[in-house]
Amino acid sequence: MQDMNKTLIKSMDILHLFREHESLSLNDIMHLSATPKTSAYRMVNALVEMGFLEKNKDGQYKLGLAFLEFGQLVTNRLDLRKIAFPIMQRLRDDVKEAVNLVVKDQNEAIYIEKLDTNQPVRLFTKIGKRSPLYAGACPRILLAYSPKDQIEDYIKNTALTAVSSGTITNSETLQQTLVQTQSDGYTISHSELEENTTAVAAPIFDSSHRIIAGLSIAGPDLRLSEEQMDELIIKVKDAAFSISKRLGWKST
Questions:
Q1: Where are the beta strands (DSSP E) in the chain?
Q2: pLDDT score for 174
Q3: CATH number assigned to the domain comprising residue 13
Q4: What is the pTM for the complete model shown?
């Protein structure tokens, strides 16, 4: 058992070398880990068989796909709602308006968390509500940061029917709005899902820089005026970035 523990520790020492080195030869591994050649060869081969390392045609070793798989499992199992909730709470208390968290479910957005405003006039969005991806700031932010081929396929195969008076129903206008959204890092909607409402949304990314959710501030357009919009944009983007960082996202 003691020998197995030593082998495991030495194998972990070898894997830790790849924190600072993208690829290493067997001689590099032997030298940096102070491991005899026979032992290093045996452990490296075992790590290759398990998928933790892979060997290229030049004899260099690098981290294997198993790490990507485990990393994605960790990301997926993080409780997004639990991580986002305190940040959403601070945002709601700051702006005094409703704050929504949505995720993509095939060709729809689903609201998985919402904090209501304490003001007497409020929106009545509920957790579990579904909306088309093209309508409303929070759903549309999910579409805007989807892969390009998915966006093109969605626009080509989706009937853009009006949900409310401000819903975008023209495919060219939608395409332009999505491009502008990616450029700006946020999107705004006016009466797209419900009359006389305004929302501003920002994207939330995971550790792989893929969009995982959308965060929005929403309320009656009388309260979310143009004069306030610059400040609201900054606050919703800052909150979304804070959640992203807690999910392992790092700015490039």
A1: 53-55, 61-63, 98-105, 108-115, 130-132, 187-190, 197-205, 211-220
A2: 96
A3: 1.10.10.10
A4: 0.69
